[in-house]
Amino acid sequence: MNRPFSVYLDLVRFIAAVLVYLYHSNQRFLIEQILPASNFGHSAVIVFFVLSGFVIAFVTTTKETTLSAYSASRISRVFSVAIPALVLTIVLDSIGRELYRDIYEGYPYDQFMARIGGSLLLVNEIWLISITSFSNVPYWSICYEWWYYVAFGMVMFLPRRQGLLIVAVTMLIIGPKVILLAPIWWLGVLLYHWRAPREMSPVASWSMVLVSIVGIVLYHAWGISEIVSEWLKSLIGADLHRSLTFSKFFVADYLLGVLVFMNFAGMRNVAAAHGSVLMVVEKPVRFVANYTFTLYLLHQPLFLFWGSVVQGDPKTPWFWVTVTVLMAGSVGVVGHFTENRRQDLRQWLIRRFSRLMPATTAAGASRNV
């Protein structure tokens, strides 16, 4: 992966996390006016999925070439933030509810064992069940992505037939909601391994970028996601449609995933040829990217908590701005001790896994069919 394109992906990742924050913080107790760019939350998660598949394909080809290294990296990446996020969500919700209970209306605060257990095992979204992790609504996507990591690892590092069998059994247990969005994640894997997009001409690459941008703008301007979701509801019924929760937009999500695929495919070549602009902003982009996962996984409980503490006036933007600054500062503090320290956990896990797991490489597994 060329460095300018890597910077571009980090920039996209951070912007997507900010868009998710705008989507969730667009609440009238914080600000009476509708926030700009606040209706792209679900779309931003689709961007995350494509990007994640691409990055995982890259690291398993270049860095995480053994099952032990891959497992240690994925576990440390997810749980270094997920466990602190779960603990902090419970603590922040408990305090916030005492200070300003009204803003927590609609967020669950019961069945602690089910919510904690589901969140720790990342099974909140199995089959047609949806267990919200208290006020931390964005937690749902990591309960999808984790199982994509597991499936990819089984296919890459185990003998092919054994890996596919385990994946099939795992997906049978996890159920349809996670499976429905899996093709979007695998689009990122396809993008990394498919040689044809890398051999496109400069004109074709720029065309892919421009078409993808226009397509994404029109996708949202025309409300494609909502239109297609309503069509799906008419086919499967309101009850099943509602039970799909975050997967009920999957048909339109496939289209958006293809547009994101096109954007990344074109930008990889454009960045390689004209990456000087991206390299100018490399340091600040890398810095904020180091806190993206923490921002994504903690922003909702944090802004609700700080909203309950500040209790400002939503008629002016300053209440939202104050809460946003406090939220960002909190992300910086938490991320310093979690996301930015995950390498320590990774090294500890590698030492232990290397004694338990066979030294199976991705290439070795692919030959052992």
Offer a quick outline of the entry.
This protein has 369 residues and is mainly alpha-helical. 75% of the residues lie in helices and 0% in strands. It starts with a helix and ends with a helix.
Q: Could you please describe the fold and organization of this structure?
A:
With 369 residues, this protein is mainly α. Helix content is 75%, strand content 0%. The chain has helices spanning 3-25, 41-62, 67-99, 112-121, 139-157, 160-174, 176-193, 202-221, 224-236, 238-243, 250-273, 276-280, 282-289, 292-310, 318-337, 342-356, 362-367. Helix 5 (139-157) runs antiparallel to helix 6 and helix 9 runs antiparallel to helix 11. It starts with a helix and ends with a helix.
What characteristics describe this protein?
single chain; 369 residues; mainly alpha; disordered C terminus
Number of domains: 1
> Could you name the ranges where pLDDT drops below 50 across 5 or more consecutive residues?
363-369
Helix coverage percent: over 70%
**What class, by secondary structure content?**
mainly alpha
Mean pLDDT: 93
- Which overall shape is indicated by the principal axes computed on the Cα atoms? globular
- Number of DSSP-assigned strands: 0
The SSE string, one letter per element, is HHHHHHHHHHHHHHHHH
The profile of the biggest β sheet is: none
CA-atom Rg in angstroms: 21 Å
Please work out how many helical segments DSSP would assign.
17
Strand percentage: under 5%
What is the rounded distance between the termini?
29 Å
